Amino acid sequence: MTQASKAAAPAATLRARLGEVAAWPVRVVLGLLDPPMRGLQRLIGAGRMPYVFLAPNFLFFGLFVFLPIAINVVFSVTGGTALFPSQRPYVGADQYAYLFDCGSYLDPGSCREDHFWRGVGNTARFVVFQVSAMVVFSLVTALVLNMKIRARGFFRAVYFFPVLLSPVVVALIWKWILQRDGLLNAVITTLGGQKILFFVDPSWAMFWAVFVSVWAHMGFYTLILLAGLQAISTDLYEAAEMDRTPRWRVLLRITLPLLWPNLIVVIVLSLIRGVQTFDEVFVLTGGGPGTATLMIVQYIYETAFANQVQNFGLAAAASVVLGLVLFVLTLVQLAVARRKEA
Question: Does the pTM of the predicted model rise above 0.85?
Fold first, then answer.
């Protein structure tokens, strides 16, 4: 035995003993659970044991997901200002009829509940620009970070870091930068320019709402695309290089088709998040100026909780409509993805 082996032996023995000590509580717990689980298996059969392990998840989803959805649907067909469903009169589809009572759905001013349709329009514009920018910038960033560049691990961490921040923190940081006396206006005035009131101009307000959302969440989607890029076999790129295939053709013929499943995941997740956006835009602009950045989720929140007269039924009806739209959009995207793969 060499001198190095003799020195490593005590360390290995110590690690083994520490592992045994750490595993002792687990062994005790498993030993206590073993008799009742064996008895349950003999009682219901081995084929039904998976349902026993799935039962806590079913209970969790039933209590915190399906039950609130059912309560929300009940609220959407009742009226009044009472909180408890038993004290709310049944009104049928009146809340939905009130939401969809419009002269023209393209003109929110012709609708009885114009704030709802302004929220729908703002959310649609936000989703179109935000999802498009998210996919493009995430894809470009993933392609760059997949190359052999210096400090690649560092840049991957830098791009992912904003994802770890709370959306409220992100919005506050950018609000301090963009406000009238913020950092960006300080730089502009130092260079001889005039202050720009970013949160007074509706176009600027929407632009920065999209920008901050992309900045905050791009790292997560970049990570998904980067994982897809690393799963592509390098043999394909080597064969393309031997054939002297142009880089743009490699991107269109090899990279994007093989990356399509990851792109679908990015599009679906970013679309769902974009439609449900609330906290960042609410903290950044408050829905203003006026209703220029009022999103549908903010409308639901204000209708149910922030307005002087809390209309739980109308807010519940709006949230049911939002849920159905998200469900339909997700099904359409998945159907398109399956057809593309086929």
Answer: no
